Amino acid sequence: MSPEDRKELISDIIAALEVKSVSTLSDEEHRWVKMAIQKEAQSIELRKAIIEKTIASLVWMFIVGIGYVFLDFARSHIFK
Cα–Cα distance between 70 and 63 in angstroms, integer? Predict the structure, then answer.
């Protein structure tokens, strides 16, 4: 590769890297995409909240159930 070819290659690479990508979306389309992403993020957060609250409720139901079983046992066998 001659020095001239090398300089031309380097200038072509620099020119290609300097070319900025042109957005093909309009402002309205950009806004719509942002709103769609935000909606999806809110949906994910809602699902997480529902799962967390469901698990917490199940734990409390288990604790109350164990308490009820112990209370029933105590009434039947201890406080007779």
Answer: 11
